[in-house]
Amino acid sequence: MTTSTLTLGRARIGYELRGYFRQAESVFFTFLFPIVMLALFSVAFSASPDIHAGRGTPGVDFATYYLPGLVATGWLLSGTQALGVDIAQERSDGTLKRLGGTPLPVLSYFIGKIGMVVVTAAIQTALLLAVASLVFGVDLPDTADRWGRFVGIALLGVATSCVLGIAISALPREGRRATATIVPVVLVLQFISGVYLPFMQLPTWLQNVASVFPLRWMASGMRSVFLPSSFDAGEPSGSWQLGLGTLVLVAWFVVGLVACALTFRWNRRDA
Questions:
Q1: Staple partner for 85: which of 111, 145, 178, 189, CB 3.0–4.6 Å?
Q2: CA 65, 35, 32 angle in degrees (round to 5)?
Q3: Is the overall model pTM greater than 0.85, yes or no?
Q4: In the chain, where the domains are located
Q5: What pLDDT shows up at residue 55?
Q6: Mean pLDDT across 236-258
Q7: How many CB atoms lie within 10 A of CB 140?
Q8: Which of 12, 185, 184, 1 is nearest to 95 (CA)?
Q9: Other residues' Cβ atoms within 10 Å of the Cβ of residue 211
Q10: How confident is the model over 84-134, as pLDDT tens digits?
Q11: Model confidence over 193-225: pLDDT tens digits?
């Protein structure tokens, strides 16, 4: 990797960020969506009793219970959904073809896209935690061990979401179909991965399907950070299974890298 590649990549990050925040639909459906959902769940269930992992265990309110899954969802939205739709549209409208005719290295282009995701995901997560704590009174982790776990899962989760976003951008054959192709996939994963519904309430076969995909492990990893230790009883194995979750995320990261290398082209496949 040359100095010029890194320099162009850093410049692309600024360019991508400006373009991202100029698109109202992207800002709402990826950047603000988890915050809006947290507010809706918190207000809707504000009068409901606390959720308990079992009799005699400490309980949490709905804002605390939903926060971990929404943190993980934010990373998937910023990485997989936003990148997938954005790159598919750029391929369709000829932007990638024009960039391919310039001296811009592919690696610099990816640095710009991934850098944009890292920055927006970090800001989004910080805002989500601030709203949860300051507005809805959620107690954030108070130990270095939990924050270290948070950072590790965040880095791996965002990296995996980015490469999968680049890979999935090859699916829509037209930019106008990108949203209709990618968003439903991401939405289904949210419902089967324990984000909006307690994971153990899903049928066993659906739990098994969800466990193949990364969001289920990102969400359970975040639950291990934000929920009391007793809530591990609400996981299928009665534990957080952080080691297995890490292996699944690493596997998807590798699969995403291979798919990116095989499918990414400056031109459309039918061009």
A1: 178
A2: 150
A3: yes
A4: 3-43+60-263
A5: 72
A6: 96
A7: 15
A8: 12
A9: 18
A10: 999 999 999 999 999 988 989 999 999 999 999 999 999 999 999 999 999
A11: 999 999 999 999 999 999 999 999 999 999 999
Residue with tokens 């009068």, as numbered in its chain: 47
Distance, CA of 26 to CA of 41 (rounded, Å): 22
Which amino acid appears at position 221 of this protein? G
Query: Which single residue is written with the structure tokens 């309980």?
Result: 59
DSSP string, 9-56: HHHHHHHHHHHHHT-HHHIIIIIIHHHHHHHHHHHHTTTSPPEESSTT
- In the structure encoding, which two tokens stand for residue 7, read together? 């320099």
